[in-house]
Amino acid sequence: MNWITHGYRPIAFIPYFLAATYWLAGGQTMTLVATIFPAAAVLLSLFTDRNAPPEHAPTGLRSLQSIDAWFQDHLQSGGATLAQTAVASLKIDNLENLEERLGIPMDDAILDEFANRVINTVRNGDVVVRGKKSDLLIFLTRVRAPESENLLHLSRRIQSCLDEPFHSGAARVYCTATIGIARANHVPDRSTSALIHAADVANRAAAKDGPGAVRIYKSSYGRTPNSDNALMGQVAAALENGQIIAWYQPQVSTHTGEISGFEALARWEHPTHGLISPASFLSMIDRLGLSQRLSEVILTHALSTLRAWDRAGLNIPSVSVNYSSDELSNPRLPEFLRWELDRFELAPDRLTVEVLENVIAESQEDIISRN
Predict the structure, then answer these.
(1) Residue 319: what pLDDT?
(2) Is 154 exposed, middle or buried (0-12, 13-18, 19+ CB in 10 A)?
């Protein structure tokens, strides 16, 4: 198919096919071939794979405009396709200092070689685009699970292609690059521009950690003190309207290698900021005095999920939840846990309460030890 639409075009050889057909099979067959062959070629060109990435231009780079529609299709697909789609922002570290040291701007030859090295390193199907000045954007699709780990592995490969020096006249120039990555399912706005912006934000966060750093975008990177103040006013409602939910981390037995349970961890799925980690909102919960309410919400999620797993025939021994010293100071905690287990028709040994060592060691309250 690609041969028909992108390579040598067999339509140009129709006269030869017709002559051969007439010689071998006669006039009627020649007429049939003359009708069917061009029509088939046109139909094949109409049904080429629209999801295939555009090929790189002879210079090695595509323009953003030329790939926008293709990439937008991936973003609108949702589901697994969304989880496998990302943008990486690649910036040469300390570019201004390099130019000052050389006494000249980074010449086009170095920047072109930089781009070509990256193009030759990324996977088949990934597309490299020139961003601002010397920056590169890499549009990634079909990232295999675990996606974050594979994205970090790809980042290390890209950075290794810069190990060899670049040559500017008689000078040898060594470069490093920071990489910021935005996964499509971590950015609420399903648009190419929003994903590029998130990748740039992650790159700026990486640059703060020094040359050659890599960061994957999270919502806290793009927040300011003003936006944190706005979140403070939203967190109470988020607890009640289902935005703060439990995510589950598997626990594995070191003796058998089998899953022994899952730990329920709080995550805030914000409608505009995307996924917010507990490090960004737990302090707000504490200041508002909502820690106990958060524990109740996560416990309900955990027990409800465990019951659903049981009904689905899955063998998950238990779920675990975390409690702070303040929550463990509640004298009614054991009664509340018994009530919730009974409500979900689960045995007490199906729930594990995780307690940090310092909670017991540093506590002067007998009620915590009793609980």
Answers:
(1) 96
(2) buried
Largest CA distance in the chain: 103
Residue 46's contacts (CB-CB under 8 Å, 6 or more residues apart) are none
Query: Which residues span the domain enclosing 74?
Result: 64-217
Peptide bond preceding 58 in cis form (omega within 30 of 0): no
Q: How many domains does the chain have?
A: 3
> How many whole angstroms separate alpha carbon 186 and alpha carbon 219?
8
Measure the CA–CA gap between 204 and 215, rounded to whole angstroms. 9
Regarding whether 275 and 158 lie in a shared domain, the answer is: no
The reply to whether omega before 225 is within 30° of 0 (cis) is no
Whether this model's pTM surpasses 0.70: no
Q: Model confidence over 183-201: pLDDT tens digits? A: 888 887 778 888 898 899 8
Are 118 and 79 within one domain?
Answer: yes
Q: How far apart are CA 29 and CA 19, in angstroms?
A: 11
Cβ atoms of 294 and 285 within 8 Å: the answer is yes
Distance CA 19, CA 25 (A): 10
Q: How many CB atoms lie within 10 A of CB 29?
A: 13
Task: Supply 274's token pair.
Answer: 């995307």
Label residue 226 by pLDDT band (50, 70, 90).
very low
**Cα 215 to chain centroid, rounded:** 11
Residues 74 and 157 in one domain: yes
What CA–CA distance (Å, rounded) separates 324 from 329?
A: 9
How far is residue 107's CA from residue 24's CA, in Å, rounded to a whole number?
Answer: 61
Question: 357-361: long-range contacts at Cβ-Cβ below 8 A with a sequence spacing of 24 or more?
Answer: 359/324, 359/325, 359/328
- Let me know if residue 53 belongs to a domain: no
Q: What is the pLDDT of residues 229-285, one digit of tens each?
A: 667 778 888 999 999 999 999 999 888 889 999 999 999 888 877 778 787 788 888
* CATH number reported for the structural domain that contains residue 361 in this entry: 3.20.20.450
